[in-house]
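Propose amino acids for all 161 sites.
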């Protein structure tokens, strides 16, 4: 083989390798970007739910929260939405509606440790992202004082979404 042919073959192999590496890198980064974007949307939805439920409490219309939660759940991007009450809230206010109970170990873990849990389930057709977000009791003067209505300590996880 001539030097020119060897050089051409080497350059071609290097370009093919670089192309393959670039495609793999873009694919992995795109997947991560989509998951991070969906996580941010979940956090925003949880904030809306938290603030709306707080407004329901302040305005004395907590008995109408089921309608609000049903309306949020009808968004096409949200496959399912539920709230899990902590033991302290159950002790004080009861079990609540069907969609207000811990469903599995993830809910229990978030209620116990007060940290966000994110679980990604993938198959050939779709990626399913589950984000469970804690709502902890606060007593800041600038916001609603959770401790004035709930029999919990500051920093306790009272709900998760």
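Proposal:
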């Amino acid at each position: 083989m001539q030097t020119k042919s060897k050089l051409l073959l080497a350059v071609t192999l290097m370009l093919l390798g670089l192309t393959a590496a670039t495609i793999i890198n873009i694919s992995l980064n795109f997947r991560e970007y989509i998951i991070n974007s969906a996580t941010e949307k979940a956090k925003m939805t949880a904030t809306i739910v938290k603030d709306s439920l707080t407004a329901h409490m302040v305005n004395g219309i907590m008995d109408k929260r089921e309608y609000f939660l049903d309306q949020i759940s009808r968004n096409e991007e949200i496959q399912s939405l539920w709230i899990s009450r902590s033991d302290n809230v159950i002790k004080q206010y009861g079990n609540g509606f069907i969609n207000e109970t811990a469903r599995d170990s993830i809910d229990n873990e978030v209620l116990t440790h007060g940290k966000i849990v994110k679980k990604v389930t993938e198959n050939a057709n779709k990626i399913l992202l589950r984000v469970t977000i804690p709502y902890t009791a606060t007593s800041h003067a600038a916001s609603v004082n959770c401790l004035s209505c709930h029999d919990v300590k500051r920093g306790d996880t009272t709900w998760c979404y």
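The chain has a mean pLDDT of 86. The two ends are 67 Å apart (CA to CA).
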